[in-house]
Design a protein that fits this description.
Residues 1-22 are annotated as: Disordered. The chain has 464 residues and is α/β, with parallel strands linked by helices. 45% of the residues lie in helices and 13% in strands.
Amino acid sequence: MRTDSVSDRSPRNREPQKRPDRVRQVAYRVIRQVTSESGYANLVLNKALREAKLAGRDAAFCTELVHGTLRWQGTYDAFLARCVDRPLNELDPELLDILCLGTHQLLRMRVDSYAAVNEMVTLTRAEIGHKRSGLVNAVLRKISQRAFDQWIDSVAPPYDEDPLLHLAISKAHPTWEVEAFARLLDDDEVAELLDADNEAPRVTLIARPGLSTVDELVEAGASRAKWSPYAAVLQGGGDPGRIAAVATGRAGVQDEGSQLVALALANAPLTGSDAQWLDLCAGPGGKSALLASLVEQRAGRLTAVEPLEHRAELVRANLRAIPGDHEVLVGDGTKPTWAEGSFDRVLADVPCSGLGALRRRPEARWRRTPADVAELRPLQEELLESAINSVRAGGVVAYVTCSPHPDETRAVVDAVLGKRADAVLEDARALFPDVPELGDGPDVQLWPHRQGTDAMYLALIRRS
């Protein structure tokens, strides 16, 4: 990840010759906050759009500037390295962000080359000083001399010589991530997945059972989704908060894949009691709200556990419209305060690398490293152990990750179940009715390029 350095900014250098374009300025400041302060693009951008009162085309343009620049950052760095006379790590990070923002407009947006360069020079003068504007002008003019595919040909090896490295550069993913995906998919499907990761995500809504309906969301301008009976897609993006059901908590924003894995847990066959459910890693609470809505209809109760207080507050906010005596605990899921076997169904949606949600978190691909996957592995195994201990005999556990990386999915399940004689892995595919291409089982891996969802993984485990 890039790190900031101190740059010389005198008051004289801070005076622009003319005002920069407001939308581009907002986009640049969002990118700076994401790259310099490890902010989350979706959260920072939404706040910036509200504060700047950008809507309609301006909001859409700003969103593409931010998401596109962050998504293609590594590829643009490879292009820019050919256009400057020093290593990129010697450039001030704020200058590099401006160059990437300009490169995105020139190569992947329908922006006139002259306008793109001129606006970025003006922005440079306003944000980081006159003396940098000459370099920005020269570099971006070099970038504009080739099309995107021509730049790829100049910096990436031919596909037949090194297909994974070619895909990593041409489709803007770190090589280690491409190699991980290639352990599960053939080269052609890897390319399809990377393309899907680079598409702008849809805004998917959930009509919480018993509180709202998909018909209500459709009447508010959404359309029915493909797989989940509670899902709708907000056409053309926009602010979901303008929909009354969302504003009141009767509906929410939730990817269809997240809905499907929670529904699979809720619909798994169960004999005996079915009144006590546990969400072991609850924050920020989207799946908790769906499970609470469902268990409420069965006269049951959800207990949601979250170790961080501020995320526990998010869970409570998601549950605010749901009736019933549901409980949110601030605590460590690996150190239960309840008796063993207390629950009938347990969701363990464990912390993971998040490689399954790269459409929604464009910056995440460049932040994560193989070390992050290795560091999370012990916690994932501990949480799964705790989940199995927490469920009664005959009860079911859903082990879930928002990552397709094999070291975070089946490898964790095999490691835990290999040490236990009281838990078995069941075939979960029947719990995804009408959803195609679920693989050989018994676990389920959803994919952006197959199902159009985040790459959610689910293993269904029954305690015996």
